[in-house]
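We treat protein structure as text, and this decision shapes the records that our systems exchange. Below, we set out a record of this kind in full and without editing:

***
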Amino acid sequence: MSRLGPLFETLRAENRRAVIPYLVAGDPDEALTLPLMHSLVEAGADIIEVGVPFSDPMSEGPTIQKGHERALEGGTSLLSTLALVKQFRETNAETPLVLMGYANPLERKGYAAVADACAEAGIDGLITVDLPPEEVAAMNAELQRQNIDNIFLISPTTSDERVATITAQASGFIYYVALKGVTGAGHLDTDAVEAHLANIRQHTNLPVAVGFGIKDADTAATVAGCADAVVVGSALVDLVANDLISGGSHTSAISGAHSLISSIRNGVNLATSN
């Protein structure tokens, strides 16, 4: 069993919601990634999503696309991302880590080799953005062999029939994309989110995380009223990038990221304290 199941069981028993920050490994360089991950945990992150840099991150908005570009320019790859995860595990064996990437690098390496490498590094779950559930059987077999969860995205336009297909293949949690389009875009309609989550829960007992549109403590707190977890991606990537672009240091970028996640943690806790 991965770390995800026990974590969500504990959170459910305590009426708490998970806070899940997303970062692109190696953005803007690998020297920042490891201390940033540890700082996010200290700020209250329950799970960390680690993005694998890719040349065509089609589901990402401009903010995260630029993060992928910066990481690739610095030479970060799937293998070096897993090496960073392995370093993180040297001092943190508890926090669940989810690898988020695209199918092409995984297919090139081979699903069995990917599952083995992820298990060795200490990965708990995998999100493959562009691998449809109809084509996931081979990967699922390898991930299950290593007790790694396979996490799927569901969007506002996903049909009820497809939701059933996805939830039958998924484990760990479901990632609900709260906005149509790419990451970092649009206005979050919390009433619509709540309605979609109710429909998803008719098909599965898995926890449901909501991402795309969580920008601050207020939006996180609102979503925490109906979701099991909130994912913070573009806001975090943008904050770190802007700090460095404006002449800040790794230390100041990490401090800013810590403050953002800490405020979101506090907002989520207040929203679910009753």
